[in-house]
Design brief:
Layout (H helix, E strand, L loop, with lengths): L1 E5 L4 H5 L2 H10 L4 E6 L1 H7 L7 E4 L8 H15 L3 E4 L4 H9 L4 E5 L10 E3 L7 H6 L23 H8 L9 E5 L11 H13 L3 E4 L6 H8 L5 E2 L6 H9 L3 E5 L2 H8 L3 E5 L16 E4 L23 H4 L3 H12 L5
Parallel strand pairs: 1-2, 1-4, 2-3, 4-5, 5-6, 7-8, 7-10, 8-9, 10-11, 11-12
Length: 339
């Protein structure tokens, strides 16, 4: 049996897909199991013992456009897959798998061009995304309640990562991870708020590591400017980030990848939801958590994935969350307060 799993969405979505990969490995112990994903997905999944091969589809980079599509299509064709399970619901994925001539193609009924799949599975919209993903395996006669819902990531040795980053002292200390960024601007809490949180934590003797991509370097600089927090924005790979989160005491972040990494390693997490809402299915999963939201707002949520800019130009959902509210969440999880 030669199996293909497809998930080329955002990194957080890939983390939430890992129970499906693990379940398929358990179901087909002797099968060859490949995953079609992005470069980011490869970084997150590369150490997984459940996967035999990772095929990278750089759909926004070198594989962009028709030529890239044809290149990946040909790669899939020569592998001779018997069955494909698609967790991604885009037009492109539906067409790609149809043209690949894989005999059995399992996808969701609400996928774009779902008629191109041979098997169409209902996706429960009112469930966490982990359960929604596992529902795809009802094709095998499996109910999500029968399957492990554990998020499975396999970090590089933290000692090696921390030494490379020059933060080896954190291994023997309590440290927090602050992640002020997101792909979508409307998901981001105010940078000054994160700065206040960093000061609160360092004042209480907790080391703080601020993480993010290169585009978040300025935000990282501001967050660290009022305290001895360490600015790692733009300095870590996704693999490094996995190792950093795996050993931390608490994560403070937006509705973004670090939230799901915290869930994967059962780390405490204060998750800040600005323009999106937990009921979309991306809340912390089976870990100690506090969810922070603004008050009731007629304009929220303004989109399922967040937006590049606020439709009203106010960012009221972000500004409506005070540092004190976030700090109260931290105190609840760490069991300490000013008193």
């Amino acid at each position: 049996m030669n199996i293909l799993v497809v998930q080329t969405s955002f990194p957080g979505d890939i983390v939430l897909s890992t129970p499906v990969i693990s379940a398929l490995r358990k179901e087909y112990k002797d099968a060859a199991l490949s995953v079609l994903t992005t470069y980011s997905g490869k970084e997150l999944l590369v150490n997984s013992p459940d996967i035999d091969e990772i095929i990278v589809y750089d759909k926004r980079g070198k594989d962009r456009g028709l030529n890239g599509f044809i290149k990946i299509l040909n790669q899939i064709k020569v592998k001779g897959f018997d069955i494909a399970f698609s967790l991604h619901r885009s037009y492109r994925t539906s067409i790609l798998l149809f043209l690949s001539r894989i005999k059995v193609r399992v996808g969701f009924k609400d996928a774009r061009l779902s008629f191109l799949y041979t098997e169409r599975i209902k996706r429960p919209k009112d469930q966490h995304d982990v359960i929604r993903n596992l529902s795809l395996l009802s094709y095998l006669g499996r109910n999500p309640s029968e399957l492990s819902t554990k998020l499975r990531l396999y970090p590089e040795d933290p000692g090696v990562v921390f030494e490379r980053l020059g933060i080896s002292d954190c291994l023997a200390a309590e440290y927090a991870v602050i992640a002020p960024g997101s792909v979508w601007r409307t998901k981001e809490w105010e940078v000054e708020g994160f700065k206040s949180v960093a000061r609160y934590l360092t004042d209480r003797g907790i080391k703080v590591l601020v993480v993010g991509s290169k585009k978040e370097a300025e935000a990282g600089r501001i967050v660290c400017s009022g305290s001895p927090a360490v600015n790692l924005t733009g300095k870590t790979s996704l693999s490094d980030l996995v190792s950093i989160v795996s050993k931390c005491s608490i994560v403070v972040c937006n509705d973004s990848l670090p939230l799901h990494l915290a869930s994967a390693f059962k780390r405490r997490v204060v998750a800040i939801f600005c323009s999106t809402v937990p009921s979309f299915g991306f809340a912390p999963w089976k870990t100690e958590s506090v969810i922070i939201e603004p008050g009731e707002m007629s304009c929220r949520p303004c989109g399922r994935h967040g937006r590049v800019r606020c439709p009203l130009g106010t960012m009221a959902c972000s500004k409506g969350i005070s540092p004190d509210k976030v700090i109260s969440g931290i105190e609840k999880l760490l069991g300490r307060s000013d008193g």
